[in-house]
Specification:
By secondary structure, the protein is an alpha/beta fold. The protein has helices at about 55-65, 85-90, 95, 115-125, 145-150, 175-190, 205-210, 220-230, 260-275; strands spanning about 5-15, 40-50, 70-80, 100-105, 130, 155-160, 200-205, 240. It contains 9 helices and 8 strands. It has an 8-stranded mixed sheet with strand order 1-4-3-2-5-7-6-8, sandwiched between helices. The model is unreliable at about 1-30 (pLDDT under 50).
């Protein structure tokens, strides 16, 4: 991983409890049977931009989400230079949820989702890393089903999917059409058979992320990480599971636009031929 992006003056806030035990995941570890060791720590990386209304509610759901037996969590929130009161809301989290490990990071300049995730991945110490959006469109109650293929040692990467049977809010037809088009185009270039490349929920073994450098600063993260996961050799075991989706309207704060779709097309082509 590249060094994390420059931090703002407010820097890093970490709750004291739980930070003394290093997590595995930077290299392959085997148990006595030759299987990969059972993951112990989940790093939850949350990029945040102008979500003061929702972020504390979302983090509360993350804190209380059920995890596999014996697994602990660290929550890494990256404030992408929000213009509202998001930064203050994030700084209140360690006191609101004592006993939970937090890393609250503040970007000095707004750089985008990809840059926030790049920094969050660099700070992650867990065996597994999951991406969590800061709004309430995705439900942390789905963590168990997302983690299960890895816990069963059947997967190295797990994608969620909004299109394979779980509840979802009915909103924009053309957004759905656009998502399916981008997924199909990505599949053509990666030779994967995903149903939802643009989904937020993606889970990685930390050892996988340590071999990947994220270059896109904004919403190009989704096609970039998909292309780079597909290129890994030996080939990674990739699973897909259905997740619930409660999409927001633009009036409720949705940020992605058709321009991001055009950029995603260019990103798919770019990372088919380059790293």
């Amino acid at each position: 991983m590249p060094p994390p992006a420059a931090a703002g003056a407010r820097g890093l806030r970490i709750s004291a409890k739980g930070m003394g035990t290093p997590a595995a995941g930077t290299e392959l570890q085997l148990d006595g049977s030759g299987r990969q060791a059972r993951p112990k720590v989940l790093s939850i990386v949350i990029p945040v931009y102008n979500e003061e209304r929702f972020v504390q509610t979302l983090v509360g759901l993350v804190v209380h989400a059920r995890l596999p037996e014996g697994m602990t969590r660290e929550i890494i929130c990256v404030n992408d230079c929000s213009k509202d009161g998001t930064g203050e809301k994030l700084d209140e989290l360690p006191a609101m949820f004592p006993g939970t490990v937090f890393k609250i990071l503040h970007q000095a300049v707004n750089q985008g989702k990809g840059a926030a995730l790049r920094r969050g991945f660099g700070e992650a110490t867990g065996d597994l890393v999951i991406v969590q959006d800061a709004d309430l469109e995705y439900d942390p109650a789905d963590y168990m089903k997302l983690l299960q293929p890895i816990m069963d040692d059947k997967a190295d990467v797990v994608f969620g999917s909004r299109f394979i049977g779980e509840p979802h809010r009915v909103l924009y037809y053309y957004h759905t059409l656009g998502n399916k088009f981008l997924t199909a185009m990505s599949n053509c270039f990666t030779n994967l058979n995903l149903t939802d490349m643009e989904v937020c929920y993606k889970v990685f073994r930390k050892s996988v992320l340590d071999r990947i450098t994220i270059k896109c600063n904004r919403f190009g993260f989704e096609p970039e990480i998909t292309a780079k996961v597909a290129k890994q050799r030996p080939r990674l075991r990739i699973y897909e599971v259905g997740v619930a989706y409660y999409g927001r309207s633009y009036e409720e704060g949705k940020k992605i636009t058709w321009k991001d779709g055009v950029k995603a097309i260019l990103t798919i082509i770019r990372f088919r031929f380059t790293d």
